[in-house]
Write a structure and sequence with these properties.
single chain, Rossmann fold, four-stranded parallel beta sheet, elongated, binds NADP nicotinamide-adenine-dinucleotide phosphate
Length: about 140
């Protein structure tokens, strides 16, 4: 199962798993899918887990490819001058609390016997290309 299957990486992973042929079924969960899953709503995560449990448990591989970097007028800060509490709270809710809630509701669907993997993607600064900038900024601040 791929969560965030409408995203760039999630969509590519879903397609790769579907063509791989090693799994009996491959499921993609989206914010605008059925069942819908919104990381900002624990009830939607619980409902999605119940729905998936009925059709696909036990699951051998769960990949969380969700993430929030910018949107809704919010851009990643490039300096401490730009820190914004509302943006940080939203990023924390989606990038930190969200994956933790996914584990709470989806880890019980993984079998105890044999190999099973729950993987969640994250990023230090959201983009590989920004890492050098982040390091330089950290050096300047210290
Ligand atoms: N691209 C990179 O260079 C890069 C590098 C390192 C790490 N990463 C990490 O890899 C992950 C995926 O990156 P990406 O480039 O594929 O990003 P992306 O194209 O923006 O996809 C992000 C996915 O997260 C979903 N999402 C956002 N908020 C959500 C919410 N409240 N509830 C449920 N789903 C939500 C989006 O759903 P919608 O489709 O409904 O908007 C979308 O499917 C992120 O964690 C990112 O930090 C990316």
């Amino acid at each position: 199962m791929v969560i965030g299957a409408a995203g760039t990486i999630g969509g590519a992973l879903l397609q790769a798993l579907q063509t791989d042929g090693r799994f009996d079924s491959v499921i993609g969960l989206l914010r605008q899918g059925v069942p819908m899953l919104d990381l900002l709503s624990e009830a939607s995560i619980a409902d999605a887990a119940h729905a998936v449990a009925r059709i696909a448990a036990p699951m051998r591989l769960v990949i969380d490819a969700t993430g929030f970097l910018h949107g809704g007028g919010m851009m990643p800060e490039k300096s401490w001058h730009q820190l914004d509490a509302e943006h940080m709270a939203k990023a924390f809710a989606i990038n930190v609390i969200g994956p933790a809630l996914l584990m709470k509701h989806f880890l019980p669907l993984l079998p105890r016997d044999g190999r099973a993997v729950f993987a969640t993607l994250s990023a230090k600064v959201g983009s590989i290309g920004d890492n050098r900038l982040f390091t330089n900024t950290a050096r300047e601040v210290t």
